[in-house]
Amino acid sequence: MNHDENNAKEFKINNSLFSTNHIFNFLSRTQHTYLEDPKHLLFSLSRYKFVAKMFEGYANVLEIGCGDAFGTSLVAQTVGKMTATDLDNNFINDLNKFHPFSEKINFQCKDFLKDFYINEFNAAFCLDVLEHIPQSLEHTFLSNILSSLEINGDMIIGMPSLESQIYASSISKEGHVNCKTADELKKLMRSYFSKVFIFSMNDEVLHTGFAKMSHYIFALCVKKL
After folding, report:
1. Edge-to-edge strand order for the sheet containing 216-224?
2. For the chain, which residues make up each domain, given as ranges?
3. What is the pLDDT of residue 163?
């Protein structure tokens, strides 16, 4: 049996749940994105693919702010154990009932401004979350994530760059209260991790080019302090 066949065997879809009605019960954000701007789905999945490649082979990974978890399954395929969290209990209830990979992904309701796990995960990531956290609360948010990581745990944060906001919609700008430049994100995360590597993304293309021209930025953070 080759590698791909083995992966397919180990990562089965729960076909009894994989129906149109069930899928539309929980993919509310993805439905909206598809109807408003279909190409943005490609951009979003590309971000998850980056995380999946960086954390490939990790034993126990945490996602903060999974939403409808459309991209979470990409990461779940490459790691040993996947826990996806969101503060919206309605999302989590639907995900546990209807998500086709609910047997592989542990969905839990968790607000990292108020709660945390205790040294449970060897890696964590959050995509399109930090920009929604007020700067006055980001230390609490990040500290609770770090408390959830094992010693030497790693993390990836992805967010729209501050420079991109001149092109953002008015609705996006209302929620984006804490966007950062690449330098600001690196400086922030160096307070919590030994090493921080910045990557950029324009549309679905990952690169290490001129950060001020990047629409989206990642901080790959290694070995928590």
Report:
1. 105-109, 81-86, 60-64, 121-127, 149-160, 216-224, 193-202, 205-207
2. 1-110
3. 98
For residue range 127-173, list pLDDT tens digits in order. 999 999 999 999 999 999 999 999 999 999 999 999 999 999 888 88
Confidence of residue 27 (pLDDT cuts 50, 70, 90): low
- For residue 205 the two structure tokens come to 């293309």
**How far is the CA of 43 from the CAs of 89, 95, 221, 224, in angstroms?**
26, 22, 22, 28
Instruction: Decide which of 3.40.50, 2.30.29, 3.40.1130, 1.25.40 is the CATH code for 1-110.
Output: 3.40.50
Provide the 8-state DSSP code for 88.
-
Q: Region of 149 please: left (phi>0), alpha (psi -120 to 50) or beta.
A: beta
User: CA 152, 219, 82 angle in degrees (round to 5)?
Assistant: 60
H helical segments located in the chain: 3-10, 20-26, 28-36, 39-54, 72-76, 89-98, 138-148, 170-175, 182-189
Q: CB of 106 within 8 A of CB of 134?
A: no
Burial string for 188-220 (b: 16+ CB within 10 Å, else e) reads bbeebbeebebbbbeebebeeeebeebbbbbbb
pLDDT digits (tens, 9 = 90+) for 69-120: 999 999 999 999 999 999 999 889 999 998 989 999 999 999 999 999 999 9
